[in-house]
Amino acid sequence: MKIMLDAGHGYSTAGKRSPDGIREYEFTRMVAAYAKDILETYQNVTVYLAHSDARDVPLQERTDDANRLMVDAYVSIHGNAYGTTWNDANGIETYVYLTKPKEAYELALKIQQHLVVMTGLRDRGVKTADFHVLRETHMTAALSECGFYTNKDEAARMKTEAFQRTCAQAIVQGIADQYHLVKKSVPTPGGQAFFKVQVGAFSERKNADDLVASLKSKGFNSFIYSENSQFKVQAGAFAERKNAKDLAARLKANGFNAYIHLD
User: Fold this and answer.
1) Catalytic one among 136, 145, 154, 204?
2) What is the domain range of residue 219?
3) Domain match, 89 and 138 both
4) What CATH number has the domain bearing residue 214?
């Protein structure tokens, strides 16, 4: 499978930026680099980068390269902004083209779900837009906005390696879920492990669905994945154990069972 990762904008192109001068590409290039490393731990996956640190690559060139290489999926990584001053706009959102192609929408939903659960940021949903990289690509394409540069808390998080790695892992997990990617038998050195907070495991899907609904009613994001003939409910995944412990404690305080495992 061939995947193209696109770090939105470049050092000199407009892009978003925080009121204190952090540029979008400073974040997106790192997320793309970490995502590439993780994707290459899967079997039969080739990863291309649409961007370059040497120069600002025009949008038309990016999509032309993707079409020429006939990649299977194009994932564009961005940061968001609301105006140019600090404000309370916040959260994650993922986009597909206006026609809402079925496979693209499914991929976007998976990426969005993992980003929200793993970062803990607000779920702004999957939306449609007439963005160039969604319109001009001939393959499945999605674009994710991973937090707001104009939100002080989110901008501060976007500067950190931990958050960048978390976003990369979430995006890759969405891709892996969509295309049923299989890990290589020998892990790539330096691969990032995450502390995952699991809330339940059931033999029947309905029980898992009921738990997700109950978690949502208490303000917790979660998702279901299938493993070893069970439907498991996960409420978060973190690079640092302390963050996982904090979430597990909040879950337990609200009457849910929760335990942490390293994966």
Assistant:
1) 145
2) 195-262
3) yes
4) 3.30.70.1070
Distance separating alpha carbons of residues 81 and 86, to the nearest angstrom: 9
Number of Cβ within a 10 Å radius of residue 210: 14
Supply φ then ψ for residue 262, to 5 degrees. Answer: -95, 125
Catalytic residue status for 145:
yes
The answer as to whether 188 is a domain residue is no
Tokens of 231: 């439907």
> What is the C-alpha separation between 96 and 81, in angstroms, rounded?
19
Q: Count how many residues are written for the chain.
A: 263
Structural tokens at position 252: 């337990």
Enter the tokens of residue 213: 């609904």
Give the model confidence (pLDDT) of 174-233 as tens digits: 999 999 998 886 444 455 678 889 998 887 888 888 998 999 898 888 888 777 677 889
Tokens of 121: 């940021």
Residue at token pair 């904008």: 9
pTM of the model: 0.74
